[in-house]
Amino acid sequence: MDSLVSVVIPAYNGRRYIAPALDSILAQKYRPIEILVVDDGSTDSTVQMVRGYAPEVRVIEQEHRGHPAARNAGIRAASGEFLGFLDQDDLWSPDKLELQIACFERHPDLDLVFGHIQNFFTPEMPPDERKRLAVPLRPLPGLLQGAMLARRRSFDRVGLFSEERSIGDFLDWYGRAMLAPMNVEMLPETVVYRRIHADNYQRKHQHQLRENLRAVKDLLDRRRGVLG
After folding, report:
1. Which of 12, 117, 169, 182 lies in the 20 to 30 Å Cα band around 142?
2. How confident is the model over 154-179, as pLDDT tens digits?
């Protein structure tokens, strides 16, 4: 029997783009999959929209605590041997899980498998705004949670995402994973399409990008033995 993959999507006021995100998971060639959407206190109709995908998609509701806490809630509820993640406004390629599971089968000692990502402008973004953004549109190595598939037992060795960080939580997690250490593979194929739109979280919270620097500092401190 093929291994179950649990997919966690944190959602906050995501009605505009979450349906295509869910459709891209349901279009996966690989089965079986378990889809968990954790609604982080949305004030729009996100929950109602996601409930329309039942029984293929399960909704978990919580008060607004931020996307790291939402991901952690999904991880706690997940029952799969593998963990995957997707942001509410991004898309998976149809063969993402198939490619990554095949890589795990070829190399049983692997803990994490990543693939490439490709940015794309959402169709409604005006051309003049696109020109103002320095966004690479070629495929790039995807050291992002959306491009990762993790063995659950390997993920648990590292622990949950830091809920103290609204930005930099994955950088912090990946840094801890590298110190574990983890066996990692980067596939050459594009597995995630990252939507660029007016409401991207990091674009709206650029003032918090210093948290990425703090995550890097914490990682360096761990390497020096300053942190546990």
Report:
1. 12
2. 999 999 999 997 788 999 999 999 99
**75 touches 160 (CB < 8 A):** yes
Measured over the CA atoms of residue 57, residue 62, residue 67 and residue 69, the dihedral's sign is negative
Q: What is the pTM of this model?
A: 0.87
Which stretches does DSSP call E strand in 94-182?
112-121, 140-141, 148-151
How far apart, in Å, do the first and last CA atoms of the chain sit? 39
Q: What share of the chain is helix, strand, coil (3-state, %, to 5)?
A: 35, 25, 40
Domain layout of the chain by residue ranges: 5-223
Q: What is the pLDDT of residues 82-130, one digit of tens each?
A: 999 999 999 999 999 999 999 999 999 999 999 999 999 988 888 888 8
Q: Which residues of 78-116 are buried (b: 16+ CB within 10 A; e: fewer)?
A: bebebbbbbbbbbbbbebbbebbbebbeeeeebbbbbbb
- Given a contact cutoff of 8 angstroms between Cβ atoms, the answer to whether 169 and 145 are in contact is no
Amino acid letter, 6:
S
**In the CATH hierarchy, which top-level class contains the domain 5-223?**
alpha beta
Contact predicate 72/145, CB 8 Å: no
Cα separation of 8 and 3, whole Å? 16
Residues 81, 97 contacting (CB under 8 angstroms): no
What CA–CA distance (Å, rounded) separates 214 from 222? 12
How far lies 105's CA from each of 3, 115, 144, in Å?
11, 16, 22
Cβ–Cβ under 8 Å, residues 114 and 184: yes
